[in-house]
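Narrative of activities, Objective 1.

The group set out to show that a structural description can be obtained from nothing but a protein's sequence at a throughput compatible with the screening campaign. Below is one input-output pair from the validation batch, recorded exactly as produced.
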Amino acid sequence: MAAEPKANPAESRIHQIVETAANHYKVDPLLVHAVIAVESNYNPYAVSPVGAQGLMQLMPGTARQLGVRNAFDAEENIRAGVKHLRELQDLYKDDRLALAAYNAGAGAVNRYGWIPPYRETQDYVYKVGKKYGDARKALAANPLQNAAGSSPPEVAQPSAHRPVEVFTDSEGRVHMRTK
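Output recorded for this entry:
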């Protein structure tokens, strides 16, 4: 009989923090995991070239506004990042625009009235949307997977925001729409 792999305690702690913050702010934990995966690849000490910090890559000014004292503390970072994401979802009523604002700032989304024409932001919205969609599909295909203790342990919460579907047309243009 093969031994089951043991869960990494740091990984389990991050999943628990995500679950708690996502439930508190009513954000789908699968979306939070998608943001973390794209932002920092689960590195709590990540620093971007522009100075964004931690798992959810909070800019220092945003972190201060959200009451974060240590952006490299996983719990503080995730709690603040999820709160910020919830605020953006409430503001824009569209996950695509919330993600664009999370990446480029609300000012850029407001200026363009849509996802800003920045390659980085467009790629970011696509990557997060793809990871989120894939996670939702995997959960739908095997809803008992989480009950069996497989990673990630969270269960998708109903979201007031419609999920993003991303596809590429025959000319290579990326399109996004809500389902």
